[in-house]
Amino acid sequence: MAETKVVRAVDGVSIEVRRGETFAIVGESGCGKSTLARLLMRLLEPTEGAIAFEGRDIAGIRGRDLRELRRDMQFVFQDPFSSLNPRMSVGKLVGEPIETHRPELSRMQRRAEVARLLRTVGLRPEHADRYPHEFSGGQRQRIGIARALASNPRLVIGDEPVSALDVSVQAQVVNLLHDLKSRFDMTLVIIAHDLAVIRHMSDRVAVMYLGQVVESGPTDEIFARPRHPYTMALLSAIPEAAHGRAKTRLALSGETPSPANPPSGCRFHTRCPFAREDCAARIPELRPAADETRVACHYWQEIAATRPSAGLTPADGRSEGAQRRFALYEAATQAPESKTATNAEA
């Protein structure tokens, strides 16, 4: 009989998420970032290692303790079309976690809370009586976000929350998540492969390749001065206005190896244009580099010296058109909130 191969979708990953920040995990499809998100949420069971939330190891908790953990950690799924039960109204979808995690509220209080949450994400209270199929993709994702906020979580994990949406809607949802994070004092962990989204909303970022973190650090530093060859290749693939200078793209050769049979040594050496003979024999550790960044590469210093302009040009803010779009959206979402606050005070 053929030997059974074990796929290590996440292998030796160690990350730290700080309270109140937006932490992003990026990488190409199949790198293990979604698996990591589900491990953090305890939707998957880790085979080894520890998962600590606010100093408490949650890798082995069960039953009531796990149910209580769900109140503080919530998840926004990638697909707004399949993550909502089509047989349940929006009011029931958003009200279910309120009933589970806040049983002290009466039925009338729950309905009022559902209405408040819908207004918070830019929907109307009367939408509570409708069903998911009556909404667009962007509206369904707003319902998913309202459902995640219903238990007053301290941590929200978004698994590519805008990748299934039209480009015209992505900016609205990204801006909504950014605004809600500040308003509710939450910590966000965002999984994405769209680097433009990450650059806009995250404080720190970890880059994954074939189940391992190859570089991590502050977002501005990673985008301005990438040190790992894989990060350089990802950033060089982003379309960018060159401002009078030619952009040198770092092209990768070959296909991503199978996680069932990863390369020896550095897993990136089969595609790395800077690989040397010993890269196939030695496994690089994720070590401190500079400015709070960590890099898993034997020769990152020499590589960075040969490519001083491997990062993107500094972002001085959104374009004038983008600023107008975001301003209109913020006005639309804040107006109902202001009215709600006035009614509450009265």
UniProtKB/TrEMBL annotation:
Domain of life: Bacteria
GO CC terms: plasma membrane
Coarse class of the protein's main subcellular location: membrane
Single GO term (MF): ATP hydrolysis activity
InterPro entries per the UniProt record, alphabetical: AAA+_ATPase, ABC_transp_ATP-bind, ABC_transporter-like_ATP-bd, ABC_transporter-like_CS, Oligopep_ABC_C, P-loop_NTPase
GO BP annotations, alphabetical order: peptide transport; transmembrane transport
Compartment annotation: Cell inner membrane
Gene3D superfamilies the record matches: P-loop containing nucleotide triphosphate hydrolases
A matching Pfam family: oligo_HPY
PANTHER family (UniProt xref): D,D-DIPEPTIDE TRANSPORT ATP-BINDING PROTEIN DDPF-RELATED (PTHR43776:SF7), TRANSPORT ATP-BINDING PROTEIN (PTHR43776)
Protein name per the record: Oligopeptide transport ATP-binding protein OppF
